[in-house]
Amino acid sequence: MAVGERERRIAAAVAGLVPDGATLQWGPGALGAAVVAALTRPVRVHAGVVTDELVGLAERGLLAGPAVAAYLWGGPGLARLATAGAVRLASVEHTHDPARLAAIPRFVAVNTALEVGLDGAANVEGPRGRPVSGPGGHPDFCLGASRSTGGLSVVVVRAEVAGRSAIVARPAVVSTPRTDVDVVVTEHGVADLRGRTDAERAASLIAVAGPAHRGGLRAAATTTG
């Protein structure tokens, strides 16, 4: 999916959350690409996979030190970066270890989801019980970022896709638990879930859902609450 106005709005909000001196992880796709493009301050990179967006980051002088990743997914520019020593490949036991990630100060993980429940739990595996992928590194990076000193676990979603809300009463599958999601960002704003009660978390998420779905979500929150 191409980067459009919705993705740029989400990305601008996320870029504003990234602190000075951060180490960043992002997932592949249009939302991850938009977030990297929106950055204005140097970051270190520690990820499962790095994409062509790393090339643009380096060309803008915003890559602070060699990126660490388990995989490369991109074209010749990314290969040249790796050859030049700007990418250091490591095993998944190193890149995905939640304890190691939590020990990185200001580690910010930015990942997408198919659904986010009103408690903040994220589903990346498939809606309505129809699997489309495995959880991958999503739980690992979210857990590590949520435990990092000064870090942040961010889940980014388009509020609505094909008429279906990404914010739901309950996700069909819990890939990443509510305790490991700090912030959810849609094109309608930022839902900061840190230190919130269940009712406050639900209210924050409803506020960033698609307007057409908010009434139904409020009713669901009242019923389940």
UniProtKB/TrEMBL annotation:
One Pfam family named in its UniProt record: AcetylCoA_hyd_C
Gene3D superfamilies reported for this sequence: 4-hydroxybutyrate coenzyme like domains, Acetyl-CoA hydrolase/transferase C-terminal domain
SUPFAM superfamilies per the UniProt record, alphabetical: NagB/RpiA/CoA transferase-like (SSF100950)
Residue ranges of every copy of the Acetyl-CoA hydrolase/transferase C-terminal domain listed in the record: 86-220
PANTHER family registered for this protein in UniProt: ACETYL-COA HYDROLASE, ACETYL-COA HYDROLASE-RELATED
Annotated protein name in UniProt: Acetyl-CoA hydrolase/transferase C-terminal domain-containing protein
